[in-house]
UniProtKB/TrEMBL annotation:
Keywords annotated in UniProt: Metal-binding, Nucleus
One GO term of the biological process aspect: regulation of transcription by RNA polymerase II
Top-level taxon of the source organism: Eukaryota
PANTHER family (alphabetical): JMJC DOMAIN-CONTAINING HISTONE DEMETHYLASE 2, ISOFORM A (PTHR12549:SF38), JMJC DOMAIN-CONTAINING HISTONE DEMETHYLATION PROTEIN (PTHR12549)
GO cellular component, one term: chromatin
Entry's Gene Ontology molecular function annotations: chromatin DNA binding; histone H3K9 demethylase activity; metal ion binding; transcription coregulator activity
Pfam families: JmjC
Organism listed in the record: Rhizophagus irregularis (strain DAOM 181602 / DAOM 197198 / MUCL 43194)
InterPro entries, sorted: JmjC_dom, LSDs-like
Subcellular location(s) of the protein: Nucleus
Residue ranges constituting the JmjC domain according to the UniProt record: 115-294
The protein's name in its UniProt record: JmjC domain-containing protein
Alphabetical list of PROSITE patterns matching this protein: JMJC
């Protein structure tokens, strides 16, 4: 894909996938590597079906990544479907995983946008003395889940204030579990919805919440829904919204514009790395989402502007002014 094509898609808020981008060095993204080098580190994982958190070490999580018989068993005698997200949660990825950081950035497309020093990444315009927002990269590691009727997926429907790029680094071989609307060899599937379709998506989800007696503040920002096969069908028939279905395998890079609602289901255990950025083409959508977050109820987890968007816009304008007057 050329940069002109990228810019055209990005201006229009269209997500896309680049197949088989520059391959990562697979051996450092394998479960055994994390067990060997980080196995004794503590982590917090989430049961994607029950939304329950568990504390364990990294070794316990990754031992069950490919071997179901080695998975953690909870007090109810169940092996939950676990997700280790935003890893590391607080520390700088570059310091915690220096090999992975270098490998990931070397493989990213459109580095002018997607890297920390990219000239078209407006977040880069913040001066060093300001406490910059943590835009990643982060790792997203999770066991396989389901997206058929009753399936809970891996990540619920949500949208972000930033643009994002997500690369799958590793997945074991995928079983051919037959399903009509899936790629039989895909490791994961994304459902993405354009910002222009979101009023109809919100209206549909409020109806679903009412049907189930759920009290919600915002049907997307609360991140309380995964649209399984039945709900996706209803959304299409009742609101005329189909969105995009994007299948992802190791080496595939998914680009998600700011304000584009999306959900993810891993069909098998996957290791992914992602980073956020703020593009000139997407900053208006970032502002719209920023205003939506500000209107959420007090205490809502998405109300705080951790992106510091006004600071980014101000310093982007200042630096652009300086450059134009050099």
């Amino acid at each position: 894909m050329t940069e002109d094509t990228f810019r055209d898609l990005w201006k229009r808020g269209y997500p896309f996938v680049i197949r088989g981008a520059d391959k990562l060095e697979e051996k450092i993204w394998r479960p055994n590597y994390f067990i060997e080098h980080y196995g004794d580190k503590d982590c917090t994982v989430i049961d994607v079906k029950e939304n329950v958190e568990y504390k364990m070490d990294v070794k316990t999580f990754f031992k069950g990544f490919e071997d179901i018989s080695s998975r953690f068993v909870n007090k109810a005698g169940i092996c939950p479907c676990l997700k280790l997200k935003d890893w590391p949660p607080a520390d700088d990825f570059a310091e915690t995983f220096p090999e992975h950081y270098k490998d990931f950035y070397n493989s990213l497309p459109f580095k002018e946008y997607t890297t920390r020093s990219g000239v078209l990444n407006l977040a880069h315009r913040l001066p060093l003395e300001i406490n910059r927002p943590d835009l990643g990269p982060k790792m997203y590691n999770a066991y396989g889940s389901e997206d058929n009727v009753g399936g809970k997926g891996t990540t619920n429907l949500h949208l972000d204030m930033t643009d994002a790029v997500n690369m799958m680094a590793y997945a074991p071989s995928v079983e051919n579990r037959l399903e009509e609307e899936r790629d039989k060899t895909a490791a994961a599937v994304w459902d993405l919805y354009h910002p222009a379709d979101l009023p109809r998506v919100r209206r549909f989800l409020r109806k679903i919440a009412k049907e189930h007696g759920l009290s919600i503040n915002h049907p997307i920002h609360d991140q309380c829904f995964y649209l399984d096969k039945e709900l996706r069908s209803r959304l299409a028939s009742e609101e005329g919204v189909t969105g995009w279905r994007v299948f992802q395998n190791p080496g595939d890079v998914v680009f998600v514009p700011a304000g584009c609602a999306h959900q993810v289901c891993n069909y098998t255990s996957c290791v992914k790395a992602a980073v956020d950025f703020v593009s000139p083409e997407g900053v208006a959508r970032s502002y719209v989402v920023n205003q939506q977050f500000r209107k959420l109820r007090h205490g809502h987890k998405r109300k705080t502007d951790i992106l510091q968007l006004p600071n980014i816009l101000y310093h982007a304008w200042i630096t652009s002014w300086d450059e134009s007057n050099d």
